[in-house]
Write a structure and sequence with these properties.
By secondary structure, the chain is mostly beta strands. The strands form two sheets. Strands 2, 4, 5, 6, 9, 10 and 11 form a seven-stranded mixed sheet that branches. Strands 1-3-8-7 form a four-stranded antiparallel sheet, with no helix packed on it.
Length: 124
């Protein structure tokens, strides 16, 4: 079982930057594809970014491409999301997720493990 804990959320002004971290338990972190999702009030959970097991490939939603960067350090059992040029539309609870199956998924149902979420608020 994979346990995930996000950190780094907070309040930031539009145009600013914020870095999120997701710490994973266990010795098999490198076996999981990892993703970031976000959910704003009244909206469905949406895909933000994903990275493959060995960090060989990364994927981004069109809304964040060029502004956000996903990375992972398997030696530290941690996945990161660096968010730059933040917009008020980025305000949401951000979730870290792990996928044990082959291939990348862009939907919440494709992931097997979830963190508790961390709030990101971008003021205008």
């Amino acid at each position: 079982q994979l346990q995930l804990v996000e950190s780094g959320g907070g309040l930031v002004q539009a145009g600013g930057s914020l870095g999120l971290s997701c710490a994973a338990s266990g010795r098999t972190f490198s076996s999981y594809h990892m993703g970031w999702f976000r959910q704003a009030p009244g909206k469905e959970r949406e895909f933000v970014s994903a990275v493959t097991r060995g960090a060989g490939s990364t994927y981004y939603a069109d809304s964040v491409k060029g502004r956000f960067t996903i990375s992972r350090d398997n030696a530290k059992n941690t996945v990161y999301l660096q968010m730059n040029s933040l917009k008020p539309e980025d305000t949401a609870v951000y979730y870290c997720a792990g996928r044990s199956r082959i291939g990348i998924s862009y939907t919440p149902g494709g992931y097997d493990y979830w963190g508790q979420g961390t709030q990101v608020t971008v003021s205008s």
